[in-house]
Amino acid sequence: MVRTIKLNDGKSIPALAWGNGTGGIEHSGQKAIDTGVVALKAGILHIDTAQIYGTEKEAGQAIPAAGLDRKDIWVTTKLSEASHVKTNHADIKRSVQESIDKIGFVPDMILIHTPFVPENGKLVEFWQGLEALVEDGTLKGCSIGVSNYRPQDIEELMKVAKLTPAVNQMEYHPYVLNHLDPLLALQKEHNIVTQAYGPLTPVIRHPTGGPLKPVLEKIAKRISKDTGKEVDSAVVLLQWTIQMGVVAVTTSGNPGNVRKMAQGETFGKEGDLTKAEMDEIEEAGRKVHFRGYKEHMTKEFPEPDLPQDL
Ligand SMILES: NC(=O)c1ccc[n+]([C@@H]2O[C@H](COP(=O)([O-])OP(=O)(O)OC[C@H]3O[C@@H](n4cnc5c(N)ncnc54)[C@H](OP(=O)(O)O)[C@@H]3O)[C@@H](O)[C@H]2O)c1
């Protein structure tokens, strides 16, 4: 049984996802299928794809290639700018249908990739287009949500939404917590689950690793000892993310790293971070502000005045 997180629409989503939009897998054809198979066979039962990654088809193909049944795997996709979706409902429906056709089935979740996918001033109308597709059965059984939405975007939607977004997918890790505080408070109020992309940013994108480096290394040693498995700082961060109640959307094009990140599904209690370890990570993370993805979430959502490193 993989770890899951309960959504506001009643469904349970696998808490660890393998994405085919980065890590050299995006637009990669056969590699997206082959590495998807490695992830699925290793026990990661959630694939995160998007129109803009050019790998929706491969997300669908990886499932039978791994010898698995579609109903046992969660697939998330996103409507992207590249699809030139306009905000009228017919265009949204056409764009959604294109994704369904490429994936080969109705996915488990569709997100709006950024608040800039809808035409300017049409954020609410776009959301209503997705709601209409749930109502008319096109998206039967499919959760709908958003990505890279800032506090002002969530507030605007929630004034009129009939269906609350199930999730907001964003860059999430200890080095952006100070920035995200108001957004996360709003999501808590509306019971919107956070999905973390870029969860490994402190380990792989921060130039020195920053104040978290020694903390993660210490915890990795402790878990390796207690579980008898080879655990590194990346795996510790994924454990922390999931224990924060957040879906961790990570990736790797390297089968060894894919198998390592899947280990968290098998650790049992010894692999859980203690309350003290969780707090130590958050405290170290909050000392700095560092983003890996600068193009998202910073427009008209001011960043905290903190150093990038100590
Ligand atoms: N909604 C959005 O706007 C948005 C934006 C960005 C990403 N995403 C989604 O999120 C997914 C993940 O994004 P991300 O790349 O930012 O995630 P990430 O988890 O921060 O980074 C993934 C990278 O970490 C490396 N890695 C994995 N395990 C490692 C280990 N044990 N030690 C060292 N390095 C390790 C991988 O490199 P190797 O391949 O060398 O192992 C991989 O390239 C994407 O594929 C996409 O599906 C969504």
Structure description:
The chain has one domain: NADP-dependent oxidoreductase domain (TIM Barrel, Alpha-Beta Barrel). The chain is 40% helix and 14% strand. It is built from 11 helices and 10 strands. The strands form 2 sheets. Strands 3-4-5-6-7-8-9-10 form an 8-stranded parallel barrel, surrounded by 6 helices. The protein has a two-stranded antiparallel ribbon with strand order 1-2. Helix 5 links the parallel strand 7 and strand 8. The chain starts with a strand and ends in a 25-residue tail after the last helix. The model has no long low-confidence stretch (mean pLDDT 95). Keywords: NADP, Oxidoreductase. InterPro entries: AKR (IPR020471), NAD(P)_OxRdtase_dom_sf (IPR036812), NADP_OxRdtase_dom (IPR023210). This is NADP-dependent oxidoreductase domain-containing protein. GO terms for molecular function: oxidoreductase activity, acting on the CH-OH group of donors, NAD or NADP as acceptor.
Q: In a nutshell, what does this entry contain?
A:
The protein has 310 residues and is of the alpha/beta class. It has helices at residues 30-42, 56-65, 89-103, 123-135, 151-158, 177-190, 201-204, 212-227, 233-243, 255-262, 275-285, and strands at residues 4-6, 12-14, 16-19, 46-48, 74-79, 109-112, 143-147, 167-171, 193-197, 247-250.
